[in-house]
Specification:
Blueprint: E1 2-7, E2 13-19, H1 21-24, H2 30-44, H3 103-119, E3 123-126, H4 136-146, E4 152-156, H5 161-167, E5 173-177, H6 183-188, E6 191-195, H7 196-206
């Protein structure tokens, strides 16, 4: 097991804790992490794009000119795809982009992402994160004390409304509970800040 420092909200080191090598000490698998990120982004797509086919655009019911003798190519409708204001041929229609990856792949991707933060020294463990009131300034000061003023992900054991709302309007800062943690958010942040009791839950789920 590897040992990591534990800090308080003022940025002071208060203790140390051990991290499970089964979760935070694996060799990062970049191919699996990439597959998980692509899967996450695909699952976020709404898939509501839609174009009108020639049967859906209005007009075009009358044949524009007679079949023969005009010198023009024969036409049956002014709403065929080659006409201005015509329907779209083979255009996008609503569809579901979601797909699933195997459970083993998802677990390995999560372990790889967590381990990569440890390797890059971007994992910060907090002894506790408790707010008495909804206060954005408290979170801002905490991030400044921890040296995490860029893109940061704050992870708590359970969803905490005060933490979520206090950090909601800070640019680049996201919050997550252990049960909503995903590989994309972990890799997308510069600093991964996790409360000590959340570390135990993560190890319990993925060890």
């Amino acid at each position: 097991m590897s040992t990591i420092s534990v800090f308080d909200m003022a940025g002071n080191q208060v203790s140390e804790t051990e991290l499970s090598d089964a979760v935070f000490g694996v060799a990062p698998n970049e191919a699996v992490m990439h597959a998980m990120v692509v899967n996450y982004l695909a699952n976020q797509r709404q898939g509501t794009q839609s174009t009108l086919t020639r049967t859906e655009v209005s007009g075009g019911g009358r044949k524009p000119w007679r079949q023969k003798g005009t010198g023009h190519a024969r036409q049956g409708s002014t709403r065929a795809p080659q006409w201005v204001h015509g329907g779209i041929a083979l255009g996008p229609k609503p569809r579901d982009y979601r797909y699933a990856l195997n459970k083993k792949v998802r677990r390995l991707a999560m372990k790889s992402a967590l381990s990569s933060k440890v390797i890059d020294n971007n994992l910060i463990v907090l002894n506790e994160l408790s707010l008495d009131e909804y206060k954005t300034k408290t979170i801002v000061n905490m991030l400044k004390a921890l040296g995490a003023e860029g893109k940061a992900l704050i992870v708590t054991a359970e969803a905490d409304a005060k933490v979520i709302k206090s950090a909601a309007n800070i640019p680049g800062v996201k919050t997550a509970a252990v049960n909503t943690l995903n590989v994309y958010d972990i890799l997308n942040c510069d600093k991964f800040i996790v409360v000590k009791n959340a570390v135990g839950k993560i190890e319990e789920v993925y060890a």
